[in-house]
Amino acid sequence: MVTNTSQERFRTYDGVFDNFTNRTLFFLESHGHVGELSRTLFVGKESNVFTTVVEGEDRLVKIYRVQNCDFKQMYRLIIQDPRFRNIRHRPREVIFTWAQREYTNLLKAAQAGVRVPEMFAWRNHILVEQLIGDPAPRLKDANIHNLQECADDILHNYRLLYQNAKIVHADLSGFNMLYHDGKVWFIDFSQGISIESDYADEYLRRDLLNVQRFFSKRGHDMDLEDMYNVVTKV
Fold it and tell me: Known catalytic residues?
């Protein structure tokens, strides 16, 4: 049972907490996945990201804004994935499935050896995962020690994602990777799609083009076809 004191901790701020979100947070708290939300790390159009501490461990809490999400766009993208083609065109169901897909993709990526945050919980429109660093910077904002090693690290992780997890990230860029202790971490897997999708190759090439452009702007040239072969060739 959740006490009034704990309910007050999830007061409405940043325009994200409605009664449904509060109830979902109370459930996650009662199961030991979240504590008091402390810092706001990111406020976006469709989601807000906060930190919490559970038994002395920092965690990240990502909350999709049910009232703000473009569920029509989400639906258009998610039905491209063979795993979710039976989803109904209902706003909450689409948004919850969107969060579920991110959770499932991250679990599969971790099992495949991809460097991703550890996942602790998912319920409805809320994800709880490991906080990398304090927090670690996104790759686009990082001071990269060695461009070649960084590029190789990205391709190595993407190869594991493709070959072992059978997933294409589909939204990879300097914004959706973190850089911590000289290593790259893949994050934000809500658009991650099965390689069985008819669109998988198109999204893979777009991801790799984003990576190529990222390094080109920093004076490190990469051949797109070579990158593609590193990821896809057995």
Answer: 171, 188
